[in-house]
Amino acid sequence: MIFLASSSPCDAKLHPFVYNLTSSYTDQRNEVTMVFTSAVMFILATLFFTLNLFSRLSVLSAILNPSVRLFLSTSLSLFLPVMSYLFSEAKNEGSALAAISPNSSSYSQLGTELSLRARTILMWMLLVELLRKKVEAILVNAGVQWHSGTIDRASRIAWLGYLVFYNLSSTGKKAIYGTLWVLAAAKLLQRVSINELLKRSFAYGKNAELLSSYMAQMLQEKDQQAGNGNAQDEGAELLKKCKYAVMGEEELEMKPGPEGYRLELKKPSTVDTDTNTDSTILTVGDIWRLAEKDKDGVLQEDPSLKRLCLSFALYKLLRRRFEDLPITQEETSNCHSLIFRGLREELLQGTEVVLSTQRFDEERKEELKGMVVAVAVFEVFDEEIQFLCEYYHSVVPVVLSNPFFFLANYILFPIVVWAFCLLTFILCGNGDVRYAYHSIITDNYLISIGMMKIVGCLLGRIIQSPEALFTTVDLAITMLLLLTFLYEEVWEFLVFILSNWLMVSLVCEYTTKSRWRDSRILSGLIRRILWVRSKISHRNLCFNQFSMIGFGGLSPMMLPKKAVPMEVKKSIMKYLVAQINDGHAHAAPLSNGWSTLQSEKHRQSQYRSQLSLACESKSVAEVILIWHIATSLLGRKCPLQNKTSMGAHRQVAVTLSGYCTYLVASYPELLPDNKDGTTHVYKEMQEQLKNALGGCWRYHLSLPGTRYDKLVEISKEQEETTMVQRGAKLGDLLLEMAQKQEDVWELLADLWTELMVYVAPSGGELHVKAHKEALAQGGEFITVLWALCTHTGITRPAIAPWEAQRHHALEP
Question: What is the pLDDT of residues 619-634, one digit of tens each?
């Protein structure tokens, strides 16, 4: 053996360490198994480290990608039994080594203790158990699944405790491994406590049922006040009088009844900057009134904080849909007024004040106001969806973010844990602290020799000695797992401190307690957290783009997300404001684009009847794919030569076309049609494209230009039986309209906007479940629209408008 043949001082230090660690490799019976185990562990450790470091540098998120979570959970499910077997093999080999060489001065001392290879495997098992909680959601549904998972993890912890305290005899080794075991056991108790707290608390697990009772009573009282002759509020006054609960509803006096809880609604004190206002419940109106009075406060400096609290209140209300509790028509009507008359008008007024100091013409001012309003409103609902994502899929206790939990979880809990670690350290030394401390140094090679010295010696011999290479790999695995654990602890702390949950909690404390507003330290703390949040991360509303033609069948799940353009947000908001009249009636029936073609704006087009035929289908997926083919063909064959107002319309049409097609391909369950029916339409379109382009290979490998040229040829055919032929002919019609200088891109932008709004509202339980499951991916753009529609009562008509028109024409 090259390594052991050397006689340098470095080799003398490493001789027992390397031999004991690599003795399993030199045994021909287990060499393949041990090498394979180290290779797999190295890949797993590298994956843990890479995913935790590089996937989170730009996004502060408390959720983990479900695909990654599934892969890691599956990998870790087999980890403990496999590593327990390898631990047993390494332990037996260490005993055999001691029996073979009982008089060897080099190994006689090693033979009385668990072998270094076995201890390394045991260290991996402890570190992986500490990392396992990073792939498990904090809040899970109560029931057999949660309890079985807790029992399974408790059994793993108990087994590891047995391996540590039964197999290790030296004080120093037992102290180090015992400390890691105490950390793992404490993390388990922490997670169980958090889950039980969330499940049983009226502020979290039971909050949905409580909010249903609160909203019913609150709206009933409001109706009674309106019946007493109170004038209807307008604009910002709606927000100042909004009684949506932000925090504190769990403190209300409640009495269970046959229809829910009967609450004793205490009138919240008027928020005042000069008095302490510790009211029972904090509402959206309290925050808005304080923002108006607190001229030099943080709410005036950063108006987005008010909207963040509104998002939090809406998140609580929307949770009821995920937990099978209804949202009444009275509530949707109230929320509709709050959003479209209250929030929108306040944003318009604020933007008008800012723009009054700028030199813009009136048209440009109106455009900018529309942009600002649309971005702010979508930000409210995007933040709401983020709250939902983190509530149902968080891997860190971010849901409990508040000053008290910070004190308990990040100050008091570590103190208690380290006290138990110190107790373990003392017990391992039989009460002799000095002996235990010296044993840690003398009983562990890495500490007694020095990590850097060992690494330096090993790196110098990797090429000449396989034993040095194997030892280096094993050390690298241990260090990667340890660094990943330390990184995760720091990251969890940062996510907690910079989370929206803590910010809402701090704003609520700031609103209800005058001493917070008077304290320069506390208000300065909020300002500094806001500054750090603005520097580290900013969440953008994103969606995927997919083209059935341009990507040649590439999986849509592999496509990167892109930010939703401001023009898209503005177009959707403009449509909602123009079409929805006070939350009760539509100016035109919501449809899959058909109503847009019948509107006064586009009625004069000589092509209206031909275009309308492409929308007269019961299958939303079919309409999307046909118009997607036509829009893509127009965008390819008739691009805009310069940036005009049509450029914004083109961006709206093209991006919404790509996103709707992505939904058909990847999330058919989020669309209004039956999931299997949508999938069938998508696969049928794929087959038709393959046939039209000359086979599977040409469909996947041909250049985009070739595909579009083929579609142009198809558009000249007389037949119009397949979706591809209908889409190609529709695209040819749009090209003809563009050549006659018609506003074809504006028409397409309006059509795709209406179609996007049309597919968003869904009240069926299967669709609600699908949106809940989509939250695991961080939420989709259509989920944000679904939340907006659910809150404001926007629904699809029961009968398609063209069918209603035909039925009306047949009536005598």
Answer: 999 999 999 999 999 9
